[in-house]
Specification:
single chain, 289 residues, alpha/beta, Carbamate kinase, four-stranded mixed β-sheet, 10 helices, 22% strand, binds adenosine-5'-triphosphate, binds magnesium ion
Length: 289
């Protein structure tokens, strides 16, 4: 692409703004959750993966956790299985659990690994069972949600081993309990647990909205910065609903367990992660301790 002078100036401006951030974050760990809802455009998806490779090239240790809600729903419908959500969680019966594992681990994750590979990096795909990264237990009400799990134990040894050798880990949110029963875990929960266990500098949740909105239908009502207390209040007042509930809850518990900042950003915006990490202004919603 040939750049005109204005574009070139902008590019140089952004690059020069990035220096203090590169110095600050070199050697630090970022856990990034790439939401399934933000993954629908293949061009954007490749650009997002390239942005993550860039972060890795400037010395940031990137762990990618991915979602895949829309792909699971599409496959379920193709197989005439019910698609139902309660409190933002996918109701997961035995058949749906099989589809969740096949789609997330077998397809979405491997597609992402492939995109890293073609972008000049080396990625390794894992789910909770690989290297015993995490085990699962059911969330409170099995009758209500089915095989929806939460992280029970976590051992990030395998992630450190991979990062030391410059592999980028790509993690699917499927795990098993100690008897081998599979559970579908919300990927935001998995990303939060990994961020805590790795003592990450940041947890970045890439989704399909500009961030947390006061009115979920109006992008101009974005809340740029909020405290844990404010986030809890928004859930209580039902301003936050659907998939934003597990996302915000994961953000809150991640912050309470020691991670300094959680960013919710729009993965549907080209280079949103670079804008968030490397510019003075930032985008999206930042929740702070
Ligand atoms: N106050 C709010 N602000 C912004 N989004 C909200 C709000 N309340 C509810 N939402 C919904 O939350 C959705 C994001 O959660 P969702 O689970 O759908 O995406 P994801 O987590 O990125 O994808 P996946 O679950 O596939 O990984 C938004 O698309 C929006 O419809
Ligand atoms: Mg979600």
């Amino acid at each position: 692409m040939k750049l005109n002078k204005k574009d070139s100036n902008l590019r140089v401006e952004i690059l020069s703004q990035a220096l203090p951030y590169i110095q600050k974050f070199h050697g630090k760990t970022f856990v990034v959750k790439y939401g399934g809802s933000a993954m629908t455009d293949p061009v954007l998806k490749l650009e997002t993966i390239k942005d993550l490779v860039l972060l890795s090239c400037v010395g940031i240790k990137v762990v990618l956790v991915h979602g895949g809600g829309p792909e699971i729903s599409t496959m379920s419908k193709r197989l005439n299985l019910p698609v139902k959500f309660v409190d933002g969680y996918r109701v997961t019966n035995k058949e749906t659990m099989e589809i969740v594992e096949m789609v997330l681990v077998g397809k979405v994750q491997k597609d992402l690994v492939n995109l890293f590979n073609v972008s000049g990096a080396k990625a390794i795909g894992l789910c909770g069972k690989d290297g015993k990264l995490f085990s699962a237990k059911p969330i409170a009400n099995m009758k209500k949600y089915g095989f929806i799990g939460q992280v029970q134990t976590i051992d990030v040894d395998i992630l450190h081993t991979l990062l030391e050798k410059s592999f980028i880990p790509v993690v699917s949110s499927v795990g098993a309990d100690h008897f081998g029963q599979n559970y579908n875990i919300n990927a935001d929960d998995v990303a939060g647990s990994i961020a805590v266990a790795m003592n990450a500098s940041k947890l970045i949740l890439m989704t399909d909205t500009p961030g947390i909105l006061k009115d979920s239908k109006r992008p101009d009502t974005l809340i740029s910065k909020m405290s844990i207390k404010e986030a809890e209040k928004l859930i209580k007042n039902k301003i936050i609903s659907g998939g934003m509930i597990p996302k915000t809850s994961a953000a809150i518990s991640t912050l309470k367990n020691g991670v300094k900042a959680v960013h919710i950003i729009n993965g549907g915006l080209m280079h949103s992660i670079l804008l968030e990490v490397f510019t003075d202004t930032g985008i999206g919603t930042m929740i702070l301790r």
